[in-house]
Amino acid sequence: MSKRTLIRGGLVVTAAEETHADVLVEDGRVAALATSGSAAAEAWTAERVIDASGMYVIPGGVDGHTHMEMPFGGTYASDTFETGTRAAAWGGTTTIVDFVVQSVGHGLREGLDAWHAKAEGNCAIDYGFHMILADVTEDTLKEMDLLVGEGVTSFKLFMAYPGVFYSDDGRILRAMQRAGENGGLTMVHAENGIAIDVLVAQALAAGRTDPRHHGEVRKALLEAEATHRAIQLARVAGDVPLYIVHVSAQEALAEIAAARDLGLPVHGETCPQYLFLSTDNLAEPDFEGAKYVCSTPLRPQEHQAALWRGLRTDDLQVVSTDHCPFCFSGQKELGRGDFSKIPNGMPGVEHRMDLLHQAVVDGHISRRRWIDLACAAPARMFGLYPRKGTIAPGVDADLVIYDPHAEQVLSAATHHMNVDYSAYEGKRVTGRVRTVLSRGVPVLEDRQYVGRAGHGVYVPRGLSTYGS
Length: 468
Prior knowledge:
- The protein contains 14 helices and 19 strands.
- It is α/β, with parallel strands linked by helices.
- Helix 4 packs parallel to helix 5, helix 5 (169-182) crosses helix 8 and helix 8 (220-236) runs parallel beside helix 9.
- The protein starts with a strand and ends in a 19-residue tail after the last strand.
């Protein structure tokens, strides 16, 4: 006899609706929903009953942009798949999509096998993979087709980082054309890396070595220029769907909005750091600004209003974290005296759901838009919907009991990410995860971690269904 779980009395919030309903879970899936107090709901019995009175019942979050154990600048992101997925669960995220790295001169399969080996048996929650294309060749173009068949249905190309991940426009065009044939989604890191390298060299030669200069050389206009170029390449490739990662600048957002106004399948993602942090953080004294070095970089505060507006108008569809943590001690410090040697990346996988709920409290977005940005839209974008990202009969029982009234202070002393600082140290937020189910199995119960490494499984993804 299967074990059933009944969640009673909560406000069920999805991207589509809000309703006071009881949720019945059986065999790892949502079996049924019924209005709280109705005869149907009252007739249900279950071995485990969760009282969600006064709480929200929301879908588990889908973070479509993480980098666990990511190699960068001679070091590795400090979260493993075990520590990173555990931290994600603490923050109400029940699925991540991580980036496999293809090394130059090596095949896509080699990279994918390496990432499967890192993740398998170690994850507390479910996971999928994107593929970073660092070397576009005839062989790797053919491999793209094979990967789509295995559920790796999105491919990331870099206009930044010459000599590491960078692809020129010809290679990007060829990859986009191939994605147009196999149905994959092209993702682009849009910054003009060739021009940025010139500005980096000039800044260092002039003695401008502090972390704040990382943001100054990676100019908003160079993000906008690359975004424009990526959009035009996608049009030339046959109006193929395009997803611009970590949009930080209002000028880049304007390029996306203009494309969408033309009816083009161009999509944009931003991240909490661009919504809540700014160049003021990069300029913190005593090298503290290194904690906030990421690419695209943090922008002046005036960009934030445009990003919030883009989230409300659907010119930006997804909020992911780009979680790529490096400890301040021993890792970020590699760039003392030379900002270009600071590992690029910030921690955030644990705080995305809470920060976006704070945005609801602050009036930036609605409750349902919160769930759309953090759960439903990324699930659709990355071929996981409706299995993930919503609450309905038949879908995976990835469910979060969320206390909208609890207050907390974000701090490295209490977070669960494997990193020695918090990008939001001392920030007060309203709202907190209480209980988390992954495929019906408790991972967090009343703020106690009860999950285990190996519960999370690889989820092959379908093609993107966003907008269809």
